[in-house]
Specification:
- The structure is a single chain.
- Helix content is 23%, strand content 36%.
- With 180 residues, the chain is an alpha+beta fold.
- It has a six-stranded antiparallel barrel. It has a two-stranded antiparallel sheet with strand order 1-12.
- A hairpin with a 5-residue loop joins strand 8 (106-115) and strand 9 (121-131).
- The chain is elongated and about 115 Å long.
- Mean pLDDT is 77; it is low at 27-33.
């Protein structure tokens, strides 16, 4: 009888241990996703679409380019829209001017901002640079063929890049944001 009780206790203990091993991860998973329905997580991707044709001036400059959020952006658990498609966004740019001797200009897009459904500001990071056309080849040819008059071709400048309306850029949320 005593051996029978020990065997019974051992079997029940094994069943409980196995049950705890299988149930604990599911409980932890349920707790980790609980309360994430209103969080816009750091690193969440947004696609921004430029609203206007843009070409920088022939000088170093900074400013903003008007754009919109292309698609809905969902919460960390995917249950709630936190940024609606069509929400205005503003892309910050810095432009390096085109230079003499055919050097091309460059525009770098590094940051953007938009708003959530409850009007909280969302800071986004971008990493995109566009270069204009270089005219260095033409400068070299003119300089060699028409030397010394060809040296005047050093005044030729490259072009500044253009960003066409409808161009899309991937941007990423810079910090967790809780939306009400």
């Amino acid at each position: 009888m005593k051996k029978e009780n020990e065997l019974w206790r051992s079997a029940v203990s094994c069943v409980l241990i196995v049950a705890l091993m299988f149930c604990s991860p599911f409980e932890a998973l349920a707790q980790s996703s609980n309360g994430r329905g209103n969080v816009l997580e750091n690193g969440t991707q947004m696609v921004l679409r430029v609203n206007e044709n843009f070409k920088a001036d022939n000088k170093a400059d900074t400013g903003t380019i008007s754009s919109i959020v292309e698609t809905d952006v969902y919460s960390a658990d995917g249950t709630r829209v936190l940024v609606k498609a069509g929400t205005p966004a503003y892309i910050e740019f810095s432009a390096d001017s085109n230079g003499s001797w055919g050097q091309a200009g460059k525009i770098c897009l590094t940051h953007a901002t938009t708003k959530t459904i409850d009007n909280k500001r969302v800071s986004l990071r971008l990493s995109s640079c566009k270069k204009g056309g270089s005219k260095l080849g033409g400068v070299i040819v003119l300089s060699v063929l028409l030397f010394p008059l060809g040296l005047i071709s050093g005044c030729m400048k490259g072009s500044m890049p253009k960003i066409q309306e409808g161009t899309t850029f991937n941007a990423y949320v810079m910090q967790d944001i809780t939306v009400e």
